[in-house]
Each structure stands twice: as C-alpha cells, then as structure tokens.
C-alpha cells in the first residue's frame, strides 16, 4: 500500500500575498482521493518528531533558538517565513512525516510525504522556506537505526540542495546528487557529491537525457540501499521562481524515470515534494499529483 504523510498542519496560513502556496497541501490529497488514485487509508498523520532526531542533524543552539522563537530578524528574513510557534510545530511534524515515510518505504518499497524536501536548511540555520532539513534528518535516522548503510539523495528541485550538501559534506554514507538551475537560487552554491548545473531554458528531451546519463551509472557506483527523492516541480516552464523549460509531461517523465529506476533496482525510495511556484495552482497540483499516480502505477 502506498503510504503518504499528511497533516492539516501542513497548510499553516501565511500572510496574504505570501508567494509560498500553502493551499496545495490540502488540495493535493483531496484531488488524489477524488480521482481514486488513493483512499483515506493511504494517508497517515505525522506527530512531533522527538528532539533526539532533530539534534542528531542540527546544531543544538539553533534548535533551541528556533523552538524558543528567538531567531534574529535577519535569520527570520533568510527563511522567508514569519516565525511563529505554529510554523515551527508544522516543520517538526514534516520531519516526522519524512522519517515515518522512510519506514513505510522499507515495508512497501515506496512512500511519500506531501510536504518536506526542505533542502535549504543547514546544520545551524534555515533558508529558503526551510527551517529544518527532513532529507538529512531522515537519512541520519536510517543510518543510525541500522536500516540503511548507504543512502543516495536524488535532488531534482530547480534549486540546489545546498543545506543537504553542507550537512553531509564529510559523511560518505550519504551521497548527495543535485541537478538544478545553474543561475538560480542559491547564488552561492555548496558542493554536493555530484552537482549538475543546468543552463536556463533546458527542455524535456535534453533534461531527461542528462538525468539518464548521470543517475543510471550513479546507482551502480554508489550502491545505495535507500533513496531519498526531492521531487520539486519548480522545474516547470511555468514556474515563477524557476528558469527551466519542462512541460507537465516532461516533469512526469522525470518522476517516472526515477521511480522506475528505484523499482527495477529493488531500492526503497521516499519521495518528499519540494517546491512548485507556477502562477496557476492547478499546474502545481497536477505536476505533484503525477508523482503519486506514477508511484501507484509502478509499485502497486
């Protein structure tokens, strides 16, 4: 059964005019249930992840400041969110959603988190709509609990996974692969284990060709026993914050390629949703929904 982390907290309201589309977190499960892709029993509600696992990845001083709502104005501005207890609680629930989704992926081969993909959170700070890093927390959880020995992070958001790269800079048990827009945020890139910098405007065929040429050999090289997939849909040509040129079909084919690769190689995969900022919310929802439809089709 496809298990999916979702909580009403995911759609925490933001000030009017804020560019982050929180509405998608409620609308996406509604759409998937309405069309029959999933049922209510596919969804599970995450809880507050134990501090132990936050501190296993993030600096204790930063976690204390975050939970105490004591970030400076510049630190808050860097996250892009107005700081509140509700927002921090939401983030900790997202962390638990990804960790629990990893556990379900070990059982069912694939699992998803409707939120997550918070790859801009560093060891000691948040950035770019990310307060804590669910990818890193999940990978460390798997390794420390003995559920995996080698994790491969596949980050295909249009923005580089800079926080994830920093966190795992000196940890060979986690291989970080980020394929992103070269001229997009963040201006100052970190060094992943493998970075593929794409020029503006790359379309479907070229994108998939590049992805195939790097990712297929990477599985043979790294020999992972778990995959964490950041599948942001801000690669779409319609995205306000992206500069690539993928169509909805191209984005779908990207996800099909990654999920099929995981299934064929018998490697469990946890998918976290990442970004998506197209003008039309319907395009964001359709692109995200395709990932779930494909997971059902390929694995079940």
Show unreliable segments.
none
Number of strands: 8
Q: What characteristic shape results from the CA principal axes? A: globular
Radius of gyration, CA atoms, in whole angstroms: 17 Å
Q: What does the largest sheet look like? A: 8 strands, parallel
Structural class: alpha/beta
Q: What's the overall average pLDDT, rounded? A: 96
Q: Please give the CATH architecture.
A: 3-Layer(aba) Sandwich
Helix content: 40-55%
> Beta-strand percentage?
5-15%
CATH topology, by name, is Arginase, Chain A
Describe this entry's structure for a reader.
This protein has 300 residues and is an alpha/beta fold. It has one domain: Arginase, Chain A (3-Layer(aba) Sandwich). The protein is built from 10 helices and 8 strands. The chain has helices spanning 24-34, 51-55, 60-67, 73-79, 85-108, 134-144, 162-167, 204-222, 248-264, 281-299, and strands at 3-5, 43-44, 110-113, 151-155, 174-181, 194-198, 226-230, 269-272. The chain has an 8-stranded parallel β-sheet, sandwiched between helices. Helix 1 (24-34) links the parallel strand 1 (3-5) and strand 2. The longest helix has 24 residues, at 85-108. The chain is globular.
């Amino acid at each position: 059964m496809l298990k999916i982390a979702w909580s009403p907290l995911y759609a925490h309201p933001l000030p009017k005019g804020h560019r982050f589309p929180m509405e998608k977190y409620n609308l996406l499960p509604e759409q998937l249930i309405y069309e029959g892709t999933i049922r209510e029993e596919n969804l599970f509600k995450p809880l507050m992840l134990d501090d132990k696992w936050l501190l296993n990845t993030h600096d204790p001083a930063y976690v204390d400041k975050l939970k105490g709502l004591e970030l400076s104005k510049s630190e808050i501005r860097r996250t892009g969110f107005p700081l509140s207890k509700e927002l921090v609680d939401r983030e900790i629930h997202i962390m638990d959603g990804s960790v629990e989704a990893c556990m379900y992926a070990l059982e069912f081969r694939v699992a998803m988190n409707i939120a997550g993909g918070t790859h801009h959170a560093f060891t000691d700070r948040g950035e770019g709509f990310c307060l804590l890093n669910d990818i890193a927390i999940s990978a460390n959880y798997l390794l420390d609990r003995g559920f995996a020995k080698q994790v491969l992070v596949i980050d295909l958001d249009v923005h580089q996974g800079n926080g994830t790269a920093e966190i795992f800079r000196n940890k060979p048990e986690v291989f970080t692969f980020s394929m992103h827009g070269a001229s997009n945020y963040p201006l100052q890139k970190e060094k992943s284990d493998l970075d593929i910098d794409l020029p503006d405007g790359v379309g479907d065929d070229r994108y998939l060709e590049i992805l195939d040429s790097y990712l297929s050999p990477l599985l043979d090289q790294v020999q992972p026993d778990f995959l964490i997939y950041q599948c942001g849909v801000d690669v779409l040509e319609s995205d306000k914050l992206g500069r690539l040129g993928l169509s909805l079909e191209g984005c779908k084919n990207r996800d099909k390629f990654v999920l099929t690769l995981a299934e064929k190689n018998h490697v469990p995969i946890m998918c976290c949703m990442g970004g998506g900022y197209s003008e039309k919310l319907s395009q964001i929802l359709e692109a995200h929904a395709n990932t779930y439809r494909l997971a059902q089709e390929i694995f079940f």
